[in-house]
Design brief:
Strand order of the largest sheet of chain A: 1-2
Order of helices and strands of chain A: HHHEEHHH
Oligomer: homodimer
Number of helices of chain A: 6
CATH architecture of the largest domain in chain A: Orthogonal Bundle
Number of domains of chain A: 2
Number of strands of chain A: 2
Helix content of chain A: 55-70%
Radius of gyration of chain A: 15 Å
CATH class of the largest domain in chain A: Mainly Alpha
Strand content of chain A: 5-15%
CATH topology of the largest domain in chain A: Arc Repressor Mutant, subunit A
Largest sheet of chain A: 2 strands, antiparallel
Shape of chain A: elongated
Distance between the termini of chain A: 21 Å
Chain lengths: ~130, ~130
DNA sequence: CCATATATTAGTATTATACTAAAATATTTA
DNA sequence: TAAATATTTTAGTATAATACTAATATATGG
């Protein structure tokens, strides 16, 4: 399933802020710096793509949503490693990859990952394959 | 200047089909498989971004447009090389890069290019730095 | 000059994004 | 519990990119 840039950002925000307790719409609006009504529309698109669930206002990624997140983040971190290995500053590599990670093919990413020796972590120390 | 995906495709189509004589709107519409009125809108956006000129119906890239083309194609071919070096099939690498080449930072591309030894040609034998 | 080709304009539609303002629901607290 | 506050949802509007049909204008060729 394809996601847009904002949907991608929202998936990442949900995943990276759900450690303690799940987020509500208003939390997501704040984290994404958008108005609640804009968040509502965005979350509705993610709901209809079966990427999130909403239960009593608590928003969580579905298992499919978690899979989409993993694909995005693996692409992001794999390419970050590749770019930093080429001498690109890790923060620049990160902002560069934010723009395109969600557009990359999983199969290409897997091949690159193997070629660079299946590193466990990205330049920021985060796992290439999130749990 | 940022371009959209369709603008990117149009720039590439114009460059890669202007060897003999310049293209007209109707040629571009056919090459891009869109209706003339859609091509008209697209070309108007490129005109207002100073990427093309239209003289007596003949459409050409401006020098700035040529610069934008070069950046896109250098990113495309540099990353194609990187992907094929990792074992990605060259046609898959090409279609993968078509989606994202226009979104990549020139500075990151230059670093990668240097790191892989400034190859002159992409896997299809085309120059990484077009004339 | 006429016929055909090409380009332009007008109008409509869709998707993604984003806003304000109002209304409906929840939740909290006095 | 009722009132106050917070949150969510709905409605309406807007913009940009994309794309279409249909009509009109403008070239071009014979």
């Amino acid at each position: 399933m394809d996601v847009t840039k904002k949907e991608r950002d929202c998936i990442v925000v949900i995943h990276e802020n759900s450690s303690g307790f799940p987020l509500r719409l208003s939390d997501i609006a704040i984290l994404m710096k958008i108005k609640p009504s804009t968040a509502y529309e965005l979350l509705n698109r993610l709901l209809s793509k079966n990427i999130i669930t909403k239960e009593k206002g608590m928003i969580m990624l579905t298992s499919y949503g978690n899979h989409v997140y993993s694909e995005i983040i693996t692409a992001h971190r794999t390419m970050e490693i590749l770019l930093t290995k080429s001498g690109v500053n890790s923060d620049i590599a990160c902002s560069q990859m934010e723009k395109i990670d969600y557009l990359m093919d999983e199969s290409s990413i897997e091949k690159i990952l193997k070629q660079i020796g299946n590193p466990a972590k990205c330049p920021h120390g985060k796992p290439v394959k999130p749990a």
